[in-house]
Model the fold of this input.
Amino acid sequence: MTAFGWQPIYARRADRMKASEIRELLKLLERPGIISFAGGIPDPELFPAAAAAQAYGTALAIEAGASAALQYSVSEGYGPLRHWIADHMAAHGVRASADNILITSGSQQGLDFLGKLLLTPGDTALVTAPSYLGALQAFSAYEPRYDTIRPEQSNRTPASYADAAAKEAPGALVKFAYVVPDFANPTGETLSQAARSRLLDLAAELDVPVLEDSAYSALRFEADDVPSLQALDLSRCGSLNRSRVVYLGTFSKTVAPGLRIGWICASRAVIGRLVLIKQASDLNVSVINQMVMHQLVDKGAHAQLIAKARAHYRPKRDAMLVSLRTQMPSAVTWTKPQGGFFVWVTLPEAVSGYSLLSRAVEETKVAFVPGAAFFHDGSGANTIRLSYSLPKPAMIEAGISRIAALLR
Amino acid sequence: MTAFGWQPIYARRADRMKASEIRELLKLLERPGIISFAGGIPDPELFPAAAAAQAYGTALAIEAGASAALQYSVSEGYGPLRHWIADHMAAHGVRASADNILITSGSQQGLDFLGKLLLTPGDTALVTAPSYLGALQAFSAYEPRYDTIRPEQSNRTPASYADAAAKEAPGALVKFAYVVPDFANPTGETLSQAARSRLLDLAAELDVPVLEDSAYSALRFEADDVPSLQALDLSRCGSLNRSRVVYLGTFSKTVAPGLRIGWICASRAVIGRLVLIKQASDLNVSVINQMVMHQLVDKGAHAQLIAKARAHYRPKRDAMLVSLRTQMPSAVTWTKPQGGFFVWVTLPEAVSGYSLLSRAVEETKVAFVPGAAFFHDGSGANTIRLSYSLPKPAMIEAGISRIAALLR
Done:
């Protein structure tokens, strides 16, 4: 008997599912001696391992606690953590209550759920170019068309976006605009307040939601916070339950990604819909991990972890920017992030990021992500993303020197 | 300014997302004094809380371990756990290696991923009636048509299924058959080996995969195991990488659901596709939970937990069956499960399971699930699902007496 043939059985959407270069690159990290500027991976030196060990012990020591910690639970998430997050949002200009919060398996799951809730095949998702690769992967499963927004320039009219969307399929609509406004993945750039206002204007004229991916916003090294899109929208519409902005938060960059805990903050109506999606997708986030995360962030501990993380990553950012300035040929340019994990490098027109990566890994044991992976439109061949989060400053200098040598 | 209007922005699939009665019923459990025969919830008395506390401590005590436990990881899952599961599958008649295994957030996530991988809107999913509600919810997000299989009767031809599927939409196909062959949710019934063979015949003639949901199979109280559909298919096709059967396993009923760990065992080709879906959906299952689960099941501990669970649930099953026999009016019938959590009760034609539930909760403080929730076709109004997993035997007797009194 022949082997079963899977190809004809796959859904149409399977054509759009590709392996993530970033996830594949994680495997390179296992090679000894590699200097990795690849994935947006927090430095494990910062993980609160001792506090986590204590918190797991506490969650399992109490009789009733152990039962709850290891049992199924409600899809919305663990009550005390939802309350903590609501207070955290309020401290950042968004008056929220627990019923505005859904706990997700990292903010990646929030992106998947929002694609699932909003996208009918052929609908348009407005994204930046480049954009967070994981968001494109999450959305692509729901077969959207992509169109490009440039919030700092805002060079197209709402009508031109709507018209292009309607041409794609009968009844197709622009369904949302997705942005990473702070220390963006992959560019490291932050949207100005004026750009945020323009983006909200565009969304209002198109009458669509804005998905605000806030993964890196806590990791600011200098200057003042720019208000979140959700906070800015609240000052327009009056309250979260009237807002068009859906905010995606995560503890992965400030506490630890291994617990897989993020959240969505949005109007009650949307949270109610997303809870149904959570039920159908995986019932609930691990309860014990939610209890432990609550302990790890409660009573000021989150602020301390953030302060420590800022102090830890800032010198790494500095080392990378200094090395780039002193090592790179003049035809190479890059962004100057005020926070987060990433510097975005534009190579000379003729240099391919993929080819450079292949040479860098083979000849000099340095890894990074080719920028083209982050473009929905196939552009960006001569760009690369460098993450300074993992290597120590001396290694950052060594790694940048090696890349620069390949470009000279 | 008016509130943002979400309704026109939702995807078409949102029409098919409904709240789960079971998940909503979980909230009833918080009422004091209620006897619950509702959700398929394991008894927390069985949770290995002390072993879990020790395992979390171990995972976080070792320097390198803590870094890995709290970090991102590969989407396939934690290597040692995948190897353990491959050995476990081999011990149950399915020769598998680690690359045949994907770790999922419970088997619920496996169901969601298989819907995502296989269903284009309008395709047909073959299911039993009744069927596990969570599977219907997971699949429905991908907008299938449902058609009913009756593996114990097999009373329709392959052509009749294919023809009905093709009428639904241009290019629409039967994409899979989904079953819970052992101690099914919701009926408690187990497919005979002959029925399994007939189901594999039907799948072969239609040339579609079979999704085998094995959530309860370990909890057998008596008689011999029936070989899994995957094991039976291997004896037809020769090897797992040639098999049409996708097996969904979980630790939720034998260890604890709170860690959210299940798995899919299937041909390498399918696992490769599902890994891409895992990447895009939520990157990876919590690493620390995977490490802890590995410790909790390794070195014979899983077999001990299963033995303990069988000894624990069997008297509960007995209490329920005895109570039903002695208490119920003669017009009521029910299944006699050889394992698992559920008894399926058929009420007199004119009695609605929903009405009975509402009376049971309000008048006698007993909860269960109306059977209609498990039917894709709107039938089953006079059925209810009783789970004996949670209450103690004396409470089971009391609860059945109270329901019986409402029916007399």
User: Anything to note?
Assistant: The radius of gyration of chain A is 22 Å. Chain A touches chain B through 98 residues (CB under 8 Å).
